[in-house]
Structures are given as C-alpha cells and as structure tokens.
Amino acid sequence: MEWVVYLLLFSATLYTCVFITRVSKRGDDRKMSEEIDQDFSDEFEVDQEGELTGKGMEDMLDWLEEQEETEESQEIEGFEELKDTDDRPSVSS
Predict the structure, then answer these.
(1) Cα(33)–Cα(48) distance, rounded to whole angstroms?
(2) If DSSP codes are grouped into helix, strand and coil, which group holds residue 67?
(3) pTM higher than 0.85 for the full model?
(4) What mean pLDDT value characterizes the chain?
C-alpha cells in the first residue's frame, strides 16, 4: 500500500514539473513574439494600424536583398573552400 502513496506523490510531482515548464514556455514565447513585433516596428516604418508604409516596405526589401547577398557570398566562399581542397594533390604512400 505504501508504494501507491509513493507512486501518487511521484505522479503529482511529475505533473507539476510539466505544468510549470509549459506555463513558463508559453510566457517566454509570448515575450519573444512581443519583442520581435517591437523590433519590427522600430526597424521598419509602420502606420498606426501596424501596416508597413511605402518607406517601411522599401527598407524591408533592402534588408532582404542584403541578407540574400550575404547568404550567396557565404555559399560561394564555402564552394571555393571545397574546390581548393579538391585541387590539392593527394599524397599516396
């Protein structure tokens, strides 16, 4: 009978830990979403309804183009590094 009490205590403790973790994660997700929204509105011009203005849209497109160029240059650098290692003669014993 004693093991039933221990099992119930363990189950209650486990349930409480899972509950606290989920509540904490939801709060963190909400805070992160609010921070992202705030950063977006600070970075790109928006009207009172939260919609991008013409200037905000241009700024966002410029930022996206910069990101794309950065990714392309990183891909090219990675490809050149691979090409350099393939061009080296192999040393055979």
Answers:
(1) 19
(2) helix
(3) no
(4) 84
